[in-house]
Give the backbone structure.
Amino acid sequence: MPTIELARLKQETAQLSEYFSEPVTYLRGLERLLQSYSVPIHREGRVKGLRPVLVSYEIPPPLLKHLQTELTEQAKQSPEAALAVADGLWVRRTIETRQLAARLLGAIQAESPQLIARLEAWADENREPSLAPELAHQGTLGLCADFPEELVSFARRLLASREPRKEALALGALQTLLKNTHFANLPLLFEILLEVCKAADRRLRPDLANLLTALAQRSPKEAEYFLQQCLEAGSNAGLAWVTRQVMKVLPEDSRARLRTILKS
């Protein structure tokens, strides 16, 4: 793996950024930069059962972090160009360019429909487990900051789709909203999670548990009441597992009451 010389890297990325307003030229230069630091490895077989499998440049982590910083700065100055660059990054079928696409999307100040359309399309297309958190946590930062109500409506629609990749994006996005903002309408979030909890799809259980844990940390009593409602409506193995994960952050008296319901 090529050695990173910070001074040289800063010079290279600064020169590249001069072409940010020309997305085609910028993206060609970015590819050349990634290739110059890469040790390409095809990832076939690493992600069992998933196709297509993306290629990784296997670049040094400091390069990816530095590129993200540069892209974020450019997005502040040229949001329209940033959208075009993000599209171009996602089209390139490598782990690193799609990571950068998700992170860039979260840094762009644009109208909510422009961001939502990309997030939904990319989540639907994505087959790489490592990219799902990038979309849910990095790609939604702009929506969380500027359009929280639109983000919640978007998440509600995705959860109603019954498509696991879109549902996972919704759950991760709502967790990002709670982590990065002071969003106060927690009853609304509990409401839209009700149907998801009744089914508690195996693939979504960790994401659902993480989100409900975040809600429980913000409002323990509401979380206990919500879980109690769900369990009394008809418990299942998935809901019981999720409840046990969330109970870990609840007060002891709440845990005791929920344990009684789980045993009944």
